[in-house]
Amino acid sequence: MSGDADIVVIGGGTMGAMITWRLSARGFDVTCLEAHGIAHSRSAVAGDSRLFRRSYRGTTPLSPVLAAAEEQWTMLNAEAGEEVFVQNGGLYLGQADGLYLRELRDCCERDGLDYVMLTPTEIRRRYPQHRVGDHEAALLEPTAGFIRTERAVHSAVRVARANGASVVVNSAVLEIEETTSGVRVILQNGEIRAGRAVIAAGVGSSPLLPEDLRESLHIRRIFLSWFPVVDPEAYRPSNFPIFVHIDGNYTAYGAPSLDGSMFKATLDDRGAPVEDFPDHRYTMTAQEIADSEVTAARFFNGIHPQVSRQECLADLYTADRQAIVGRVPGASRTHVATGFSGTGFKMSAGVGELLARSIEEDADDVLPDFWSPARFGPEAGHQLAPQ
C-alpha cells in the first residue's frame, strides 16, 4: 500500500476512531490504519457498554475533558442518526460518612454538576434493584449514562468516512519514521507517507513509541461480567441507572440490561498486570467468578447471582494512571493517545476533539499538562520505533 494523506491515524479502535472522526470533521485528509477489524471481539471496545459520568474522585482536573466528551458524544448521536450515548443517570452508592461520596459531592459542587443525595429509604423506594445497608447513602447524577461501545466506534468510523476519511483494516504498522517533510509509515504490505502521524493503537501502541514511553506502560487485563435478571423491566435503562457501589472491600460498577435478559455488574479495579495475552487470559478465573457472584448477591435484588456472560480484554496502563496524549518527545510530526489505564472510553470523544484541535492549531497547550508524554522522559533524542 502506498499513498499520501495529511494525517495517518494508527489504530481504529476507541481512540483511533474518535480521533479520525474529529480530524476528518476539520477537513483533514485522514487515513486510519487498523491492524485487525473495527471493534473486533478481542479489542478493548468489547462489552456492549461503558459508563459515562462527569463526577469523579481525586484531584486531577478532568472536568474540561469530560465536558468536551459529553458535547462530542451528543454530536455523534446527531451525526450518526442513532443513540450511541444514553443519559439515563448515574447512581453511586457507598458509606454515608465515607470518603467516596464526599469526594463525588465535592466534585459536583466544584464543577457545577446537578446531583441529588439519597438516603437508604429513598434508595430502596426509587431503586429497589439495589440492596443497601442503613449505613449507606447514594449520589444520583442525572446527566450520567452509558455509551454503546461497538456501535459508537462503528458510528464514528462511518461518519469519518462520510467526511472523506479512508479507514483501512488488516493493516498492521511496523514502524514510523519522521522525514524532512512529514512521516513515513511502514506496513507489512507497503508504506504510506503523510504530513503527521497519530499513534492510537491501544495495547499495540508500545512498539511504536520511544523507550522512555514504552517503559512507562504496562498491560493490564480487565474482565467484565453479566448476570441474569428476574424482571427485565426493572433493569431496563429507563429504570436502572449506571452505578458504582463501594462498601468496604465489596465494590462493583455496571450498566443496565441492553438485551432484556442480563445486566452488567463487574468488580471494580480488579485487573491484573500481564506480560502477554494468550488465549486463556480471555476467560475469568474461578476465583474471579466466585468473588463476582458473592458481590452480586450482596448488592442486588431480583437477579440470579451466577455469571452468565463474561468478557476479558486488555488495556495499557501508565505508572501514574494518567494517559499519554500529545506530541511524542523528540518528534515534531508524531502524536500519541494511549495509556488510558482502563478509564478511556467515556472521555474518548473529548480526547479526539482536543487532540484534533491541538493538531489543527499546532498547539500542544490545548491538551492537559497532566497527560503530557514528556513527563516520562527527556523531550529530545528519541527514535520513534525500533530500527
Spell out the key features of this protein.
387 residues, 2 domains, 8-stranded mixed beta sheet, globular, disordered C terminus, FAD/NAD-bd_sf, flavoprotein, oxidoreductase, FAD
What is the residue-averaged pLDDT? 94
Based on secondary structure, the structural category is alpha+beta
How much β-strand is present in the residues? Answer: 25-35%
Total domains, how many? 2
Please tell me what the overall shape is: globular
Number of helices: 8
The profile of the biggest β sheet is: 9 strands, mixed
CATH architecture of the largest domain: 3-Layer(bba) Sandwich
> What share of the residues lie within helices?
25-40%
Number of strands: 20
CATH topology annotation of the largest domain = FAD/NAD(P)-binding domain
Q: Give the low-confidence spans.
A: 380-387
Order of helices and strands: EHEEHEEHEHEEHEEEEHEEEEEHEEEH
CATH uppermost class of the largest domain: Alpha Beta
Write down the Rg. 21 Å
Distance between the termini: 21 Å
The CATH homologous superfamily of the largest domain is termed: FAD/NAD(P)-binding domain
Pfam family, one: DAO
Domain FAD dependent oxidoreductase: 6-357
Protein name: Sarcosine oxidase
GO molecular function: flavin adenine dinucleotide binding; sarcosine oxidase activity
Question: What does this entry look like structurally?
Answer:
Its cofactor is FAD. This is Sarcosine oxidase. GO terms for molecular function: flavin adenine dinucleotide binding; sarcosine oxidase activity. This protein is an alpha+beta fold and 387 residues long. It folds into 2 domains: 5-46 and 150-216 and 320-376, FAD/NAD(P)-binding domain (3-Layer(bba) Sandwich); 87-145 and 219-318, 2-Layer Sandwich (D-Amino Acid Oxidase, Chain A, domain 2), CATH 3.30.9.10. It contains 8 helices and 20 strands. It has helices at residues 14-25, 63-80, 99-111, 120-126, 149-162, 211-215, 286-299, 348-361, and strands at residues 4-10, 30-33, 49-52, 85-86, 90-95, 116-118, 136-141, 145-148, 166-168, 173-178, 183-187, 190-199, 217-228, 242-247, 250-255, 262-267, 272-274, 309-318, 324-327, 334-338. The strands form 3 sheets. Strands 5, 6, 7, 13, 14, 15, 16, 17 and 18 form a 9-stranded mixed sheet that branches. Strands 1, 2, 9, 10, 11, 12, 19 and 20 form an 8-stranded mixed sheet that branches. It has a 3-stranded antiparallel sheet with strand order 3-8-4. α1 runs parallel beside α5, α1 (14-25) crosses α8 and α2 packs across α8 (348-361). The radius of gyration is 21 Å and the shape is globular.
